[in-house]
Amino acid sequence: MQPTFFGHPRGLATLFFTEMWERFSYYGMRALLMLFMITSAEKGGLGLNEDTGGAIYGIYTMMVYMLALPGGWIADNVCGLRKSVFYGACTICLGHLLMAFSNTETFFVGLLLIAVGTGLLKPNISSLVGELYAREENARRDSGFSIFFMGINIGAFVAPFITGYFGEKVNWHYGFALAGAGMLAGLVQYKITEKYLPEERMTRTPEERKKNARTLGIVSALVGLLVLALVFKIVVVDPVWIAKAFVYIIVGSAVLYFGYLLFVAGLDAAERRGVLAILSFFVMSVIFYMGYEQQGSSLNLFALRYTDLALGGFVMPASWLQAVPAVGVLIFAPFFAWLWLWLSKRNIDPAIPVKLSFGLLFISASFFVMTGAAYVVMQGQKALPLWLIFTYMLHTFGEICLYPVGLSAVKKLAPQKFAAQLMGVWFLSLSLGNLLAGLLTSNMSNERILRNPGAMVELFLGIAIGVGLAGIVMLVLSKRLRFTNSVIAAKA
């Protein structure tokens, strides 16, 4: 009898622990990143201002999602899923190793390597999970992905406690090194237990793979030279300028692509309606993640500077609060999954646009909570951690409503010949939202807040109102977009 993992193929355990440790490394480093960049050099940080630190944070988190697109291409056209995951994990380990040194240049090269490695590992390990099951095993596959999803959140929950303590209390670079040690543990167990994964099914001939590998090598070398020129200041470019330029590039690309689909691609009326629905979901996703990804940027700064972190005689690291969203997912994701099924059996399951609007409204409510916390700070007091804990729980409710629902809707609504491209466009919305979240961090600068004590209130209230209005618009439009459910039913 073949060994199993909770009744699933044994290979699921290989992928579960690889992803768990990869998420440990990602969220462990992410919990420290913004805090390290804005901490003064005298205290071991980079001493950047909030504008620059926020722009770098936004570019990094943007790249993690954008690089998933070439990461998938590399697996399909060059080295396959299994090797892509292995090379991605090796690249992440190397990135963390460079970040463990007290050197500004190696820090930024390490950050880039982590983004590249994550882009190579993340989409392909998910594809490997799907490869463990036969095509007709839909229910078993869904169950396997649920177990896999738990691994993600276990890693995200544990990481901030370990890397946060050593990073903030001992040495920032120890925290980055420990995040890398987690990825190394995942890499070692992946290689030892790789034999349990299914045989690789290559979609390209050896000749095609060699040709694609040469092309990839040339492009990588050119990009690498440009990055080294930027890092070592042979070419000097303002990170804020780069971040803003990427905003225009992504928005322009999305406008051109959706315009092509709607007016040039020769789609029929039903397919165009599906594309219009996906376009509305794209916009809502950007707005959602612009608020949600404040967790690692402005809300992380709020935890560091304006939150009472004292627990008796111990002052907890600000980064520990970054574990709250993962706890929320572990506790509440099963409840929401049960709720949607319960409502569906009674024919009162909310339409897809309604669920997406719920996601936005939860984010809006969370920033109304943070507006209250900012008012406490304006009175000259520090806010209790409960303000951020409640905020992060609302974020979790919002993501459970929006992310899996939006992902599923895009997959099912996309015209067949553009399905993979539109899934890539969905991830592009996450990239843009992350980038905008980083740029908004400039509003948390000490200078601005000292000059205008109400600046924090304005920031949080502005996000609350803006995202709330978007949620209300989606709710109003949901009647016009209800055809999405019927289109999905027709395709089933």
TrEMBL record:
It is found in: Cell membrane; Membrane. Gene3D superfamilies: MFS general substrate transporter like domains. Residues 14-482 form the Major facilitator superfamily (MFS) profile domain. InterPro entries: Dipep/tripep_permease, MFS_dom, MFS_trans_sf, MFS_Transporters, POT_fam, PTR2_symporter_CS. Keywords: Cell membrane, Membrane, Peptide transport, Protein transport, Transmembrane, Transmembrane helix, Transport. Its main location: membrane. Pfam families: PTR2. The chain crosses the membrane at residues 53-73, 85-101, 107-125, 145-166, 172-192, 213-235, 241-263, 275-292, 323-344, 356-378, 384-406, 418-439, 459-477. Belongs to the major facilitator superfamily. Proton-dependent oligopeptide transporter (POT/PTR) (TC 2.A.17) family. This is Peptide MFS transporter.
